[in-house]
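Researcher: I need the complex structure. Ligand is magnesium ion. Inputs:
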Amino acid sequence: MIEVKNITKRYGSLTVLRDFSVDFDESGVTVILGPSGTGKSTLLRCINGLESIETGDILVNGLSVLEKRNLRSIRLNCGMVFQSTILFPHLNVLENLILSPMKLLGVKRSEAEEQARYYLAKVGLASKEEARHNELSGGEQQRIAIARAMIMNPKALLLDEITSALDPEMSVEVLRLLEKLASDGVTMLIVTHELSFAQKVARRVLFLEGGSLIADASNEVFFNDLKFNNERIARFLQHINQ
Ligand SMILES: Nc1ncnc2c1ncn2[C@@H]1O[C@H](COP(=O)(O)OP(=O)(O)O)[C@@H](O)[C@H]1O
Ligand SMILES: [Mg+2]
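Model: Output:
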C-alpha cells in the first residue's frame, strides 16, 4: 500500500533520510522506534506529501507523491495525527469532525453528523459533541483527532508521537484506544517511545537511526531475539526503559 523507494530527504546540508526504502503492505500495526532526531517524523511527513524529497519516490496505493495532483488522494488515504492537536476553536467537536467529510468528500451534513457520532462513540467521547477545544483535556483532544482522521475512512493512520505531550494518565487513555483500534484491525504506522505499548500492539517494528533502517522485524523477533542479539537495539531498549 505504501512503497518508499530509495528516498533521500535533506534539510539544507543535513541529510535526514539517505537512500531509504521500506514497504508497508500488510494490515495491522507497524511501530517505528528510534532515538530523537533520526527522521521518524520526516518519514511520515514525506509519505503524506508534506515534505518534498530529493531523490527516489513514494507510492501510496500506486500514486506517486512526486505528482502534485496525487497529493489530495494520498492524504485522504493516509490520515495523520500529530503530537498536539488544535481543533478549530470557534467550532464544537461535532462541527470539527464534519468539516472535512463535507468539504473534501461532499458528504451531506446529516450523513456527516451520523458518521461523526459513530466515530465519537468509537473513541469513547459521545458525550462531548458540543464541547469546544478549551473544554477538553489533552487526552480527549487526541482522541478527537483520531476520530477526525478516521471519519475520512483512510487506508492507514499515521500517528506521530501522539501521546508524548500528555501526562501519564491521559497517555494511557489514548494508548488504550489505539489498542482497541489495533484489535479492530485498523492499519496504523505509529511513531512512539512507549515500549510496552509497542510490544503489545505492533505486528512489525522498525528501528531508525541516522536516517537508515537499522531493523525491520516482527514483534517477536524485535523484542525477543534482537533485544538480546543486537547490541544497538539492546542499548536503546535499556535506555528508554530507565
Ligand atoms: N523543517 C526542518 N528544517 C530543518 N531541519 C529539520 C526540519 N525538520 C526536521 N529537521 C531535522 O531533521 C532531523 C530529523 O527530524 P525528525 O524527523 O523530526 O526526527 P524524529 O521524528 O526521529 O525525532 C533532525 O535533525 C531535525 O532537527
Ligand atoms: Mg518526531
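Model: Summary of the prediction. The pocket of magnesium ion (ligand 2) is lined by residues 40-41, 160-161 (CB under 6 Å).
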